[in-house]
Amino acid sequence: METKNITPCKVNVASETGRLRAVLLSRPGIEVERMTPLNAAQALYSDILDKPTVDKEYGLFSGILERWTQVYYVRDILEVLLNDEEVRRHLVLDSLRHDRRTSQMNNGEELFERLMSLSPSDLARVLIEGLERENWDGFSDDRYLLKPLYNLFFTRDASSTVYNRVLINSMSFEVRERETLIYEAIFRHFFGVELLNASQWNPLAHTEGGDVHIAAPDLLCIGEGIRTNSKGIDYLAQTFARERDHFNILVQELPYEPESFIHLDMVFTFLGKHQCMAFEPMLKKQGLFAGKATTLISIDGGKVTYHEVPNILEGLKKLGWEMEPVICGGSDSWMQLREQWHSGANFFSLGDGKIIGYRRNTRTIDALDRAGFAVLNAEDIVSGKVDMTKYDKFVGAFPGSELPRAGGGARCMTMPILRD
Question: Is the whole model's pTM more than 0.90, yes or no?
Answer without folding.
Answer: yes
